[in-house]
Amino acid sequence: MSDVDGRGREETEDERADRQWTELLQELRVAQTGVQILFGFLLAVVFQPRFAELSDVDRDIYIVTVVLGSATVAALIGPVTYHRLLTGRRMKPETVIWASRMTVVGLVLLFFTMCSTLLLIMRVALHNTFALWLVGGIALWFLACWFVFPLWALARGRSELPSDQPYERDSSADTRD
């Protein structure tokens, strides 16, 4: 039995879950690559000779950054494990919903990891309070690109739906395009 989601797409719940899973995997490939490279560099920092010269505050920032990076890696790789453990159990729609939620958590953690990384680098490079202002500006840019612009487009898209086709929220609404 097909289901039209109000925007012209006709697919069963299983077809929708398969499509959404494929799309989510593509998104995760982009995020995972960057996170793994960043995390690898973070792990190498402690073994550099200049690490011993860092102030206590900078070392604390480094520790927080590594912990955030670890949590980010876990959240962005988690959907793969979730899928692997549930494959063949006819739970694809639920898997997509939970994997999507884990991905959003991973992106939020990535935001904090990036800000923390930038703060450490800018403090070491600039040695002044301008580092905080610079990181704050970049953090706002990340927030805008990753969250504000998509949420604005979502709000705009909902307000532009024809009145004869109201937006219907179903169990897979969290993972819709």
Provide the residue-averaged pLDDT: 86
Major beta sheet, strand line-up: 1-2
Q: What is the terminal separation in angstroms? A: 21 Å
Q: Element order, helices and strands? A: EEHHHH
Major beta sheet, specifics? 2 strands, antiparallel
Poorly predicted regions are 164-177
In terms of DSSP E residues, the strand content is: under 5%
Q: So what's the overall shape?
A: flat
User: What class would the helix/strand composition place it in?
Assistant: mainly alpha
Compute the number of helices: 4
The gyration radius over C-alpha positions equals: 20 Å
Share of helical residues: over 70%
Multimeric state:
single chain
Structural overview:
This protein is mainly alpha-helical and 177 residues long. The protein has helices spanning 13-45, 56-86, 92-126, 130-159, and strands at 3-4, 10-11. Strands 1-2 form a two-stranded antiparallel ribbon. Helix 2 packs antiparallel against helix 3 (92-126) and helix 3 (92-126) packs antiparallel against helix 4. The radius of gyration is 20 Å and the shape is flat. The model is unreliable at 164-177 (pLDDT under 50).
Briefly say what this structure is:
This protein is 73% helix and 2% strand.
What structural keywords apply?
single chain; 177 residues; mainly alpha; two-stranded antiparallel ribbon; 4 helices; flat; disordered C terminus
How are the SSEs ordered, and which strands pair?
Elements: E1 3-4, E2 10-11, H1 13-45, H2 56-86, H3 92-126, H4 130-159
Antiparallel strand pairs: 1-2
Helix pairs in contact: 1-2, 1-3, 2-3, 3-4
